[in-house]
Structures are given as structure tokens and as C-alpha cells.
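BUG-249 | component: ligand-complex export | severity: low

The export step for adenine jobs runs without errors, but we want the raw record kept on the ticket for reference. Input record follows.
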Amino acid sequence: MMRIDIITLFPEMCDAVLNESVIGRARKKGIVEFECHQLRDFAYDKHKRVDDTTYGGGMGMLMKAEPIALCYEHICEALGKKPHFIYMSPKGKVLTQTRIRQLALLDHIVILCGHYEGVDQRVLDEYVDEEVSIGDYVLTGGELPALVLADSVSRMVPGVLSDDLCFEDESHYSGLLEYPQYTKPFSWRGKEVPEVLMSGHHANVEKWRREQSLYETLTKRPDLLDNAALTDEDQKILSRWTQSSLTDE
Ligand code: ADE
């Protein structure tokens, strides 16, 4: 069981996504629990203000510290502990599958979605354990990033995917990109499925898939090869390609 609390100004937006498809099913089954909190409910003045102007000047508005602190404290009180608190921000460390796998081992995560120009630094210093970015680009708010995190972490929780083994072959799991896949019909618009996949020869299929994974990674994301766990055989296959392309030139 894993629980993720999201602190947001748009809880309906988050619920709408988390109620669909694979994650929606896991939520209904109770394998993952999501609680989307309306930050405005924790505003303490009569106008329900959650943002204000920045000290030192500047155009934008910032999210105020106190409503965020009150919301996080409310979650801590309900649980009787201080769950890992993540702030989605382009200043954070960029999310990877390795980090996602680690986060999936926690039983509780709280995610703060930023808006406007950001959040008062004091509440980040006081409560936030980690800032996480989903990539080197900027979105209008933290909801989509929070949903990316919630989705990618939840699907690693045992029981969420129909077959617990099925993420082991996919892209990024072993540090390589996934091999190409094919389904029926055998012949589509004159293009046939690679012969080896029709052979029923399991070892040959595995060998072909490994080679294809290496080829995909070498041609599309060679940077990933630096951190991938490669066997001597993998290295041999790769050097064959890199050497032949050198001699081609
Ligand atoms: N908020 C805005 N842009 C973001 C990003 N790239 N990652 C996480 N949170 C964000």
C-alpha cells in the first residue's frame, strides 16, 4: 500500500487524471491511495488568500508560507508522522527511473504543486525534503509534474500493473531503451514481422531483443550507455557497430 497526498489549488484536475486507466483501477482497488487537498481550504484570512506580492519588487505573485504549512501539518497530524515532502519545481533534481523506483519503496509521499512565480522560500526550508523537476523546461504549474511523479511512482507499486514483471523489460528499467515490438497481423502493408520472433526459439528471441535494445540505445540515446549494466557480450556487439561506422566514414 502506498499513499500520496497532493497539495494543490486544482484538486479536481489531479483527481480527474488519477481516476482513469491503470492508476484509476489501482486506486479503486485500494493498492494506492491518493488524497488531493485544496490549498485554499487552509487560507486563514476572510478572502482565502493563498498568494501575495514578492518582497524586493518584481511582477509576479508568490504562494504564501502559512497555508502550505497548515496543510502539511494537517496531513502529519492525521497520520501521526512526517511523510516525505516533495516540492515540484524546475529547480529540483531531474526525475529518473532510478529515483522513481526508490520513491516507490516509501509508504507515504506528500507533493506540493507550485503556482504563480513560486513559493515563499521559508516554507520550503522548513518542511520540504526534496525538490523534484520533471525536465529542463517550465510549466505553468506543478500539477502536471505532480501527476507525472504520482503516475510513475504508483505503477512501480506491486499489484498496480497486471503483471509485476512487465516493467522489467521496458525502456529505462535496465538502463537501456526497449526493443521494438510487433502484434498481429504478421504482414501489414507489405511489411513483415522479423523472422526470429516467429521461430519460437526462446534463446534466439532473447538474444535478438538484447541486440535491438543496445542498437536503439546506441542510436537514440548513446548517453544512457555510460550508466547501463553491460555484459562483455553487450560490449562486443556495441564495439562491432561503433567500429563499422568508423570504417564507413
Ligand atoms: N513546475 C514548473 N515547471 C516544472 C518542472 N519542469 N518540473 C517540476 N515542476 C515544475
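Assignee comment: Attached the raw record above. The mean pLDDT is 95.
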